[in-house]
Amino acid sequence: MNGAADVCIVGAGPVGGTLACRLAEAGLTVAIVDRAPLPPMEHPDFDGRAYAVAAGSRVLLEQAGLWSNLPEPPCAIRHIRVSDGRVGRAASPLFLHFDHQPEEGAFGWMVEARSLRRALNARLHALSGVTVHAPAQARVEFAPSGAVVEVLGGSRIACRLVVAAEGRDSPLRRQAGIAVTRFAYDQTGIVCAVAHERPHGNTALEHFLPSGPFAQLPMSPTEGAPDVSAIVWTERRAIAARMLALDDAAFGAEIARRLGSHLGAVRPIGRRWSYPLGALHAHKYFATRLALVGDAAHSIHPIAGQGLNLGFRDAAALAGLVTSAPDPGSPALLARYQRLRRPDNLLMLAATDALDRLFSTDNTLLRLARDVGIAAVNRAPPLKRLFTRQAMGLLK
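Request: output the structure for the sequence above.
Response:
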């Protein structure tokens, strides 16, 4: 069966799926292809994963019709505390604390991964302008006048723009011959959730340790756990392997050693997830009738929690161009998309890499310098406000 669409998106993760919904809400026809099944109704159990959604990214989710349809309520982040220390010891008395400004609302929200997935799957199937092909694989033929997406074993879709949202190992990026720069960190990211005795007060903690940053992020209650936080723990690979092999009691004790006692006793809930950490940046964000978004174009160290938000900013920028253009895949439009997004993504790549190198060390002089720097920023309201607006995704 043959068909046509304005845009075909390959990859229905948070960035690709949200972009599809945003374009369909604006009146475009969209085909979306993903290797995984995307059932319109699913009820997965709590699995411990969550996304930090910046205030600027919330606007995109609202425009896509997703925010109001999240089945589990997001948890606002109203305070952020940045500290430095060593495992098993009290944090340095020099710290940085951000309080939200009432006129700007929360810094962001913690959204359960299962909640966004359920909202996306339901919305993709409900929008009349979206055709879902999943589970399926796609093969694409590109030409200056347009592209043809062959859904293997199914239909052929003629479109004017293909969007690669398949992640950091994007086959479409490779097919287009777009080179990338990669570098690996000798670190593993451990993601999980904990229940704790005391309320988190909507406060996020970023605690810098010699092996890497350790973050506690406030979450909404879940069944059997009224007080819950997400943990994003960066650890040296060899140590991470040992931590992941521990039973729940020992694993929880290691989390407590890094977290401190301010939340009382903690216990792991849900699953544990781990990822090798690395960074990537594509030398170009587009080719003939092809645009890269999210991890297909760039990935960064999770030290600032901004990787997904950068992808959402890609989607917002591309949607803003495509919805007002007669030809969504023209070379001029795609070049403009790259000019809009590349500086922001490169800046965040450089900043997160520098932060990891500065903070993931036990060098005495560097520790002293960063502690003094943290304290200095804490006493400089204009600088704090600049960092705040960057974290919220409000800087243009």
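DSSP finds ten helices and 21 strands in the chain.
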